[in-house]
Specification:
The protein has about 120 residues and is mainly β. It is built from no helices and eleven strands. The strands form two sheets. Strands 2, 4, 5, 6, 9, 10 and 11 form a seven-stranded mixed beta sheet that branches. Strands 1-3-8-7 form a four-stranded antiparallel beta sheet, with no helix packed on it. The chain is globular and about 40 Å long.
Length: about 120
Amino acid sequence: QVQLVESGGGLVQAGDSLRLSCAASGRTFSSYTMGWFRQAAGEEREFVAGIGWTWSGGATIVADSVKGRFTISRDNAKNTVYLQMNSLKLEDTAVYYCAAREGGVLRKPSAYDYWGQGTQVTVAS
């Protein structure tokens, strides 16, 4: 099992950048596929980005809505996964969650077994 803690959220202006971090517990971090999801107020949770399980980082995939602006990466030595968010838009405002699962990257939230508590990202004009 793994425990996840997100950090790095905050209030920013449109066009700004943020980097979210997700610190994972346990020595098996490199064995998990990691994902970022977000949930805006009144909306369902949606997939943002995922990165594969290999110790070197694995393959990545990002949602079309953030492609070209967001980048997911991981540092297995630090047991940490990151979400670099550039050119933030008002519609990026949401609670961002880190998640982990065994196997490949999937977009469905229910496929992930472990979740962090979330970190709020608010983008203002």
